[in-house]
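Margin note: ligand = manganese (II) ion.
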Amino acid sequence: MDMKINPVFDKPAGQPVVIAGPCSAESEEQVLKTARALAKQKIDCFRSGIWKPRTRPGSFEGVGVIGLKWLQKVKQETGLKVTTEVANREHVFEALKHGIDVLWLGARTTVNPFSVQEVADALKGTDIPVLIKNPINPDVKLWMGAIERIAKAGITKIGVIHRGFSSFGNSNYRNEPMWQLAIELKRLVPGIQMVCDNSHICGRRDTLAPVAQQAMDLQMDGLMTEVHPDPDNAWSDAAQQITPAVFGKLVKGLKIRSESTNDVEFLEHIDDLRSKIDNLDNELLDLYGKRMQLAESIGQYKKKNNIAILQSSRWNEILEQSMAKGRERGLSDGFVTQVLTAIHQESINHQTKVMNAKSTAKKTKKAKA
Ligand code: PEP
Ligand code: MN
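Resulting structure:
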């Protein structure tokens, strides 16, 4: 699909787009207090959730339409642009009626094509900018699909919000950033403005700054961060919200590094290092190829002796040993596990092919008969 996508925010290169505000609008006073403090920091857009998609019923589900009136006041008083989350036709209708500047689709909406389509249909005939969060599950196609549905409705200013992905098990993150998926989306939709929602990635305060820095170093265009005047007593997402003052420091502390340079010495040095990396990658591919040949020989031998492909104890042993060796080389357990799991799966695929191949001897016999 040929999509015409323009940036949501006009921002000179090298300056991050800054969107900040409370997770939820709680009271007029709380909204205005936060907005006044953030307006002083000259942020680009004020965020606040009015309708809150909560994982379990019974949690605070947002103040509803009254909150849109508070956002109107923010606009009038501070001149800041305002944005809120919409998830259905009625939300879009109300947000447009109240002059909201930018809409965003939440992670639980992007995941559902019916909801995205409902929002897209409600947007037809308007050209309000829309930001689309990644879906909760790590599926770039679903994210793309939402962008396409909104673009098809005639919206031309579209941006995306990277807020991390749900995962099972222990993690330092509330939502795993899986940066490579954000990078992949940027590759698929070149030029699309992408901001990092470090709040929902981290789920806690102490890691917000390094995650924001990492987003800048991966050429993201800005941040969406939850800011609350009294974070500990916030009605939703208390653990991850920070005060305007702390947020101001976080933004000031960001190092914005340029994407490229014309400095010849730098370029030559980088080229040299990159060609070394390319050589190593080629060597790794050669080794993987050789490893798969060995896997096939093992497959033949197991077939002959009627032995199953997977021996769990052997696999556990390889994994444990490799993680220990990896640690000695500064490689994380997560990385070693991911690489080895992929290699192991590929080995199994090769062995399965060998195991299930009809022997050529039998085939010729059949052909003759
Ligand atoms: C939010 O921004 O407060 C929110 C509900 O986020 P997400 O859709 O990313 O969970
Ligand atoms: Mn939140």
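The first strand starts at residue 17 and ends at 21.
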